[in-house]
Amino acid sequence: MKLQWILFFSICFVGFCTPVQGLFSGTSLQDYVDGLVDAAKFKIQGMLSLNDTTVGRMWSYFKSKYGRVYSSMDDEKQRLRIFRDHLKYVLESNLNTLRTYELELNEFADWTMDEFNTLKKGLTISTELRRRLSDSESDDSYDEDSVRRSLDKLYKHHYHQRRLKRSMIYRRRHQTHLDRRGFTDWLWNLINTGIGNSSSSSSSNNNNNAGSSTSSFDWRNQNMVSSVKNQLNCGCCYAFATAAVLETLYAVKTKSSTVTEFSPQQIADCSSNGNNGCNGGNFAPSLRYISGQGGKIATLASYPYAGKKQSCQTSGLNQVNLGNIQYGAIPEGDEKAMAKALVDYGPIFIGLDADSQLFMFYKSGVLSISGCPTRRQDMDHAMVAVGYGYDSALKLPYWIIKNSWAEKWGEKGYLRLVKDKSNMCGVASMAYYAKLT
Which domain of life does this protein belong to (predicted)? Predict the structure, then answer.
């Protein structure tokens, strides 16, 4: 008995000195959940097969793993309800034998969809397209409900961002306290329970390494793609996608054996004409800003990412001269043209309609979403297509897409989205290629 108490206090001491996430890094939240769920029983009874005690253990594990603290008991009760809804959705989805993908609960499990859309996306449509939406009232094909939905997507995140800012500040202030308290609570529970400005029509290209399209192609195989980044709680996916495209183009242009990483923070801070920092932007305004700086962009090392908009830095930077930047749009919905441009020019900046829990909790496989919107005005998240392939087991072609939600999301930060299936989620609706000359 004495030895057990010595062991207990030793573990507690280690807990006080160790970040909470580090203690749980070996077991994912989904693995922990799956260990408590009888899949056969859940398939028949659904959430009725999970009693409050079991869900409470999952909730405690989630809070400890991700360092959650809430401003009040009412706030925590609301977050627990959201967690239960997401838990039900993920478990039910993974029981579908016809699915071609797998989901997992993750750090977003206590977020609403509105919060997720506000903090983890950030692709906005151009002023020109917005004007066409307004003018479309006179068009016979005008759909008032869908236009309202599109415009609502553009503006609803501003309210949530103001509300969430206070919550995020509170969480940061209480993080150290939670690291200590959360570990102790978890340990006791464990013991007690036993557990462009311009486009080029030229047919020549300086970035062609592969010729015509084949059944598979991946720029990562040529060591021309940088590491996956994390945009944190800032809606500037457009800046990460723009930087990722230019990184590969520059590596190809210079025939470099390593990829120089560029600064998305500079794009978010400084490209104010058409972009709006953490409140969204797009590819063309980002490239116009860089071109206006003489084709120069700062390295990530000299202008690091901060996770929030800052004042534009103009001194003390290590800037790379990209040369003349040209870009063009893929014909809307043309996946064959997009595949060819990806091989001929380099990774493709794409917009997706990611307004779905399937994106939120994607883990692996080839994602396919029935009825996913494909109109340009519905695109709300920017990513980068770096290749495509074919899954022989699923018998499905897919796009290989780099995201900016860190490596723990998806397939080490990447998504495989079904290819050549009616322009899934608008993968080719707002797609751009670029060239450096």
Answer: Eukaryota
